[in-house]
Amino acid sequence: MTNRNMTTNFKPFLLKPAAKDYLWGGTRLNDEFAKGIDLDPLAETWECSTHPDGPSVVASGEFEGQTLTQVLADHPEYLGTRHPDGKFPLLIKFIDAKKDLSVQVHPDDAYAMEHENGQNGKSEMWYVLDASKDAHLVYGLKHDCTEAEIRKAIADGTLLRYLQRVPIQKDDLFFIEAGTIHAIGAGALIAEIQENSNLTYRLYDYDRVGKDGKKRELHVDKAMQVANLKSSSQPRQPLRVLKYKPGAALEFLTRCKYFEVYRVLLNAERRQLVQYRADEVSFRVMLCIGGCGTIQFEGGSIPFFKGDCIFVPADSVTMTITGQAQFLFVRG
After folding, report:
1. How far apart are the two ends of the chain, measured CA to CA in Å?
2. pLDDT of residue 77
3. 195 beta partners
4. What is the Cα 329 distance to its own chain's centre?
5. Residue 30 backbone phi and psi in degrees, to 5
6. Are residue 108 and residue 151 in the same domain, yes or no?
7. Which of 34, 96, 250, 306 is most buried by a 10 A CB count?
8. Of 226, 250, 269, which residue constitutes the final position of a domain?
């Protein structure tokens, strides 16, 4: 956080998500985040997205009703000097896993560029918002395996015995590098920050059938080309240090070549204001994961609540933030 008082013309705006009704989803995003989306199940909300499979829509300010894709095409300067190509690099989601997700793997950028028509690969970060008592995730393999072993295990339905299961609880953090075999388990509520990609190669899907009555497609050949078949160590929680400022505490979560993520604990009343502005280097995204507050700036204000997502352009106006809230703060 900073107290610089420079102002420019670039104002933050609220986003409305795209939504997905994948068969493993539940109802918590409507029940607890007040999404008001007419889907059942509601598995994912793509809160900040320019991906063609589900772009988010601006829900406040002068661009209200336009897709984020449209706005950034017209205003590439909102991305900042770090992104001179004008391409938005991220996709930010909420995920409600009422049932187990498929066991899957994502390609890296090089493979996706060559084999998937120039698309991005997919590395991602999971922040656990809530988890049932026995919730877990799959993170890599228990021991080194050969491709032949994994193919045989997929064919005879024994893949699960090779996978490393990791118990999870609220506020856990995991970074899933491209190539890591993984899955979110039932009972997990997740915030996901990832590359701007929707490439997923399924290895196992519990023999489930889709809406068409057919088993969902597996992508074994592609998965075998990108999967890391070496054993994975238990994912370690990083050392997380809170830095306190008047009205807020800032906790660094993770940094990679694609994004940098913090958790902000806001406890700011009118007599204890928190001010912030994004520099000219890159945009920011604020994903509220609890509580509520208000962002005020010259010429406007945005009240925000649990589940809301705010896009802050690079070189933004100075914002005054008040309220009692938690949010993930993402720098692209």
Report:
1. 16
2. 97
3. 90
4. 11
5. -80, -45
6. yes
7. 96
8. 226
Which of the residues 28, 202, 263, 284 is marked catalytic? 202
DSSP secondary structure string for all residues of 28-50: HHHHTT------SSB-EEEEE--
Could you give the count of Cα atoms lying within 13 Å of 278 in the half-sphere of its Cβ?
28
DSSP 116-175: TTT-----EEEEEEEE-TT-EEEEEESS---HHHHHHHHHHT-GGGGEEEEE--TT-EEE
Evaluate whether residue 233 is within a structural domain: no
CB 209 within 8 A of CB 290: no
Residue type, 323: G
On whether both 246 and 222 belong to a single domain, the answer is no
Q: Is the pLDDT of residue 262 over 60?
A: yes
**Neighbour count for residue 218 (Cβ, 10 Å):** 17
DSSP lists the bridge partners of residue 255 as 260
Quickly list H helices, the chain: 28-31, 68-74, 109-115, 147-156, 220-226
Residues of the domain holding 313: 242-331
Looking at the fold, whether 177 and 56 belong to one and the same domain comes out as yes
Instruction: Say yes or no: 201 and 295 in one domain.
Output: no
Decide if 308 contacts 60 (C-beta within 8 A): no
> How long is the chain?
332
Q: Are residues 120 and 55 in the same domain?
A: yes
* pLDDT tens string 90-147: 999 999 999 999 999 999 999 999 999 999 999 999 999 999 999 999 999 999 999 9
Structure tokens at 68: 């984020």
Rg (CA), the chain: 20
Q: Closest Cα to residue 180, out of 231, 219, 239, 136? A: 231
Catalytic, 277? Answer: no
Q: Which of residues 226, 257, 286 is at a domain's end?
A: 226
Given the structure tokens 């490439």, which residue do they identify? 199
Tally of domains within the chain: 2
Dihedral of alpha carbons 189, 194, 197, 199, sign? negative
Task: Let me know if residue 327 belongs to a domain.
Answer: yes
d(CA 196, CA 69): 12
